[in-house]
Specification:
This is VCBS repeat-containing protein. Keywords: Signal. This protein is an alpha+beta fold. The protein is built from three helices and 14 strands. A hairpin with an 8-residue loop joins strand 1 and strand 2. The N and C termini lie far apart (about 60 Å). The N terminus is likely disordered.
């Protein structure tokens, strides 16, 4: 019996190895180690009596990942946003290897619970800028969203207030598109609302446009006196009044009339 069992185990092992090798040969993707790529970001969530799923139902939603060409060398760079972990930015050196420039970049999200990131050239200077949505536990207007303007030398300057984008609600994700067809990119901001609606705090949905959980639409206008773009909240006049509690958003022209519609996932 021992010999037969050994043969069976050997045959099974050979079959598994054979299947594994065959599967590897036919895969479309290859896993690259952090040691090789230089990307070692981890969005670690450590729970305790204060930080847990009962106090914050969006605890494990995670942050966002943004891809942009921050130094205009035609290689895609990466920024990861973290919940408790610090957000980190990596510059592509080529051949699937990256350099962490977070410390020298000026991007600092310590103490901020980041939920999403969008890459957009806000000031239309040819360099990708970074807009970070901020939320998290107990964020009652304490942590406004962050806009990092690309200085063109792999450093960034936080300028959300300057551009009118320091939204103080608990946002989840932003999306930039030209909703009024005037040639510039406006912004729709998807909100979550964990500090307002947790698993142990139930209340009616607010539909008056005054809740921090209501999605926002920002119109982009060029201010001649300031000589740069300024975003204005036009949510009420656009008819956006009900609380969103959104998790994702997409924009598309559903009937090919050149006017964009957006769909929010709740």
């Amino acid at each position: 019996m021992k010999i037969k069992n050994s043969i069976i185990v050997l045959l099974i092992t050979s079959f598994v190895i054979g299947c594994t090798n065959k599967r590897t040969e036919n895969t479309l993707f290859e896993r690259i180690s952090a040691e090789f790529s230089g990307i070692n970001f981890e969005n670690t969530i450590s729970t305790n009596d204060s930080i847990n799923i009962l106090n914050y139902e969006y605890l494990y939603n995670g942050g966002g990942v943004g891809i942009g060409d921050f130094n205009r060398d035609s290689l895609p760079d990466v920024i990861f946003t973290g919940s408790i972990s610090e957000s980190r930015i990596y510059i592509n050196k080529g051949k699937l290897q990256f350099n962490d420039i977070t410390k020298s970049s000026g991007i600092d999200t310590n103490g901020k619970w980041c939920t999403g990131v969008s890459i957009v050239d806000i000031n239309q200077d040819g360099f990708d800028d970074i807009y970070i949505s901020v939320g998290g536990m107990g964020n009652k207007s304490m942590f406004p969203n962050l806009l990092y303007i690309n200085n063109g030398d792999l450093t960034f300057t936080e300028s959300a207030v300057k551009y009118g984008l320091a939204d103080k609600g608990e946002s989840i994700q932003s999306i930039f598109f030209d909703y009024d067809l005037d040639g510039d990119l406006d912004m729709y901001l998807l909100t979550g609302g964990g500090f307002e609606n947790s698993a142990i705090n139930i209340r009616p949905i607010i539909d008056n446009g005054k809740s921090r959980n209501t999605d926002r639409l920002y119109r982009n206008d060029f201010d001649e006196s300031l000589n740069h773009q300024v975003f204005t909240d036009v949510s009420l006049e656009a008819g956006i009044t009900i609380e969103g509690f959104g998790l994702g958003i997409s924009v598309f022209d559903v009937n090919n009339d050149d006017w964009y519609r957006f769909i929010c996932f709740k």
